[in-house]
Design brief:
Shape: globular
Distance between the termini: 69 Å
Radius of gyration: 27 Å
Strand content: 25-35%
Largest sheet: 11 strands, mixed
Number of helices: 15
Structural class: alpha+beta
Helix content: 10-25%
Number of strands: 37
Length: 613
């Protein structure tokens, strides 16, 4: 009979936090205190956010690993995303962890995305520890926040061991940590000691053969595909002949051409690795996330990583506008498909399906934000593509009723904006479930709202709350379809010919709506150049110049002054488009366009649709 043992020399810790609660800054301080850097070494802030998009947006998008050594114990730190749209990253990360640190802002308390990741940690049975961060804030309310954390743990059905969590108080940015609020300031050594003393070591079965669960994939130009995972049982040696067990139980041979482990932020080649450690294995060309690496004599599979189903889909297609190929280096549909397929290998939450159109593909994910990040990443890699409006994925129950995803929405805004927010959300089929007013001038409101009701609302919400509101949500459940939701009450101003936009024409179009382009912008037939004040579309000539005559009069040629135009961001563009519109994305530009560019074709399709109805 196998015996359960613990490797006390290793701790695998996931760090859970809401966006902007100081998780990455805390990890920076842990690195610095553990002696990872020289005394006077110049080090970037937010070391773990190594993607350009992460640095720009100040959020963690991809789960990443690193390690520090403390008291001869190796602590593998797994940085998890704080946004529910990156849930696939969360589930991968937690599959490698034995314990988790919940990091909470001393003023804001536990927020919705924290709840989402925490639920996953409880389901995985991880031992918990709490760090109350940013205790130096003027509006810090440490005791109340701690009470809210206990309430959240009870609400999520945490077990007795998880509720008896150790707590430390910190200012992660400055490397200050203490066990009690009334103690003098200490350093990160207190947190590292607590991790070693309170967090469990890696458990394993003493007489089981080698089992490694592949939780992530990497790629090297020199080594090919890399399998990243935790050793659940047994030991692994470099150049060893092993096997990989796939989703259907199929077994493929695998030779370990190079074995690496994390040392700080970098990787170090090792000859042997023990149970509990997280390793990178080269030589696994056909491996997928969720596969098990085992001995070839008696291979034994581990339980595969299970992720929530995608809730949103978007159509990705090759760019077919007259401007295609002018700004991007990769324009072919086959290359776009290859890139999307590669993304499904790395990200278990993304699915890819082919469509009847050979140049278009359906990409499914957790939310429009996750898909927007994928599009932004691709455009930075040189891709040109067109994407359609996000659509929610509906299901049918046993009785044939249509079910749609419903979000638990949390709104934090000033009291004066409560009316406009509740009015707009009620139009989108939201129902209020809770309202908390602590007398600080700000209110926290909870709603349940269909996922499709949130598509396009975030930008409107920021305008309604003068940029001061905070909106967060996570998937609650599937419920019966709520009926039609009005998404846009305005139409589009559409260019009717190719050319360059002229100031005179744009000046006379300004009263018709909000323009998206400036004079001199290249346009083409079917390109959307603005938002029309009324419903329906308005086809216009934006290249029309002023007619010149021989008769001149004083004051006739006043300077034309146009309103300043803010360029649309990718998310704003995706939220704006209607069903018959697309976003043209290139490395240099984001344009809006009709799915069918010629005016005559659009009119024919419109007439056909009216006749069918």
């Amino acid at each position: 009979m196998s015996k359960r043992k613990v490797n006390e020399k290793i701790r695998n810790i996931a760090i859970i936090a809401h966006v902007d609660h100081g998780k990455t800054s805390l990890v920076d301080s842990l690195f610095k205190h553990s002696g990872l850097f020289r005394e006077n070494q110049d080090v970037d802030d937010r070391i773990m956010d190594n993607m350009d998009l992460e640095k720009e947006r100040g959020i963690t998008i991809a789960a990443k690993n690193c390690s520090v050594f403390w008291d001869d114990v190796k602590i593998n730190i797994i940085d998890t995303p704080g946004h529910a749209d990156f849930g696939g990253e969360v589930e991968r990360a937690l599959s490698m962890a034995d314990g988790a640190i919940l990091l909470v802002d001393a003023s804001e308390g536990p927020l919705p995305q924290t709840r989402f990741v925490l639920q996953k940690a409880f389901t995985a049975g991880l031992k918990m520890m709490v760090v109350v961060n940013k205790i130096d804030r003027k509006d810090a309310r440490v005791d109340e926040v701690l009470d809210e954390i206990y309430e959240l743990f009870f609400d999520l059905d945490a077990n007795d061991e998880q509720i008896e969590f150790p707590v430390v108080y910190a200012v992660g940015r400055d490397g200050i940590v203490k066990n009690e609020m009334n103690e003098p300031d200490g350093n990160m050594g207190i947190l590292l000691d607590k991790i070693v003393d309170e967090m469990p070591g890696a458990e394993y079965e003493s007489d089981e053969i080698l089992q490694i669960l592949v939780s992530d994939l990497g790629y090297s130009d020199y080594l090919g595909r890399l399998a990243i995972g935790k050793i659940f049982n047994g030991t692994i040696n470099n150049n060893e002949q092993l096997v990989c067990i796939g989703a259907g139980g199929e077994i493929k041979p695998l030779k370990v051409s190079k074995l690496q482990a994390y040392e700080g932020l970098s990787l170090k080649e090792v000859n042997r690795a023990e149970m509990g450690d997280i390793v990178l294995i080269s030589g696994a060309d056909e491996i997928r996330i969720g596969d098990t690496i085992s001995k070839k004599d008696a291979p034994k599979a581990l339980k595969r990583i299970k992720v929530d189903e995608p809730t949103v889909s978007m159509k990705f297609s090759a760019n077919t506008s007259p401007m295609a190929g002018k700004e991007g280096s990769i324009v072919q549909a086959s290359k776009i498909y290859e890139r999307l397929y590669k993304e499904t290998l790395r990200n278990v939450a993304i699915r890819l399906e082919e469509t009847d159109d050979k140049d278009a593909f359906l990409v499914k994910g957790r939310g429009e934000f996750q898909l927007a990040i994928l599009i932004e990443t691709m455009r930075r890699e040189g891709f040109e593509l067109s994407v359609g409006r996000p659509e929610v994925i509906v299901k049918k129950d046993a009785n044939g009723k249509v079910l749609e995803p419903v979000e638990h929405l949390f709104v934090d805004c000033d009291e004066s904006f409560v009316g406009v927010v509740t009015e707009k959300l009620s139009l989108r089929k939201a129902r209020m479930s809770n309202l908390v007013n602590r007398g600080s001038g700000r209110v926290r409101i909870e709603f349940y709202i269909p996922s499709r009701g949130l598509i396009g609302y975030r930008d409107e919400f920021l305008s309604d709350t003068k940029g001061t509101g905070v909106l967060n949500s996570y998937l609650h459940d599937y419920e019966e379809f709520k009926g039609d939701i009005p998404t846009r009450f305005t139409g589009s101003i559409v260019a009717d010919r190719r050319g360059k936009a002229v100031p005179y024409a744009l000046f006379h179009l300004e009263p018709r709506g909000r323009l998206f382009i400036t004079p001199g912008t290249e346009i083409y037939e079917g390109m959307i150049i603005g938002e029309y004040n009324k419903a329906g579309d308005l086809d216009v000539n934006a290249c029309k110049e002023k007619k010149l005559t021989n008769v001149r009069a004083a004051g006739k040629d006043d300077n034309i002054l146009l309103k300043p135009v803010s360029p649309l961001t990718l998310e704003q563009a995706i939220h704006f488009i209607a069903e018959d519109e697309m976003v043209e994305v290139t490395p240099q530009s984001i344009r809006l366009r009709k799915s069918f560019l010629p005016f005559q074709k659009r009119q024919t399709l419109k007439s056909r649709k009216l006749n069918n109805n």
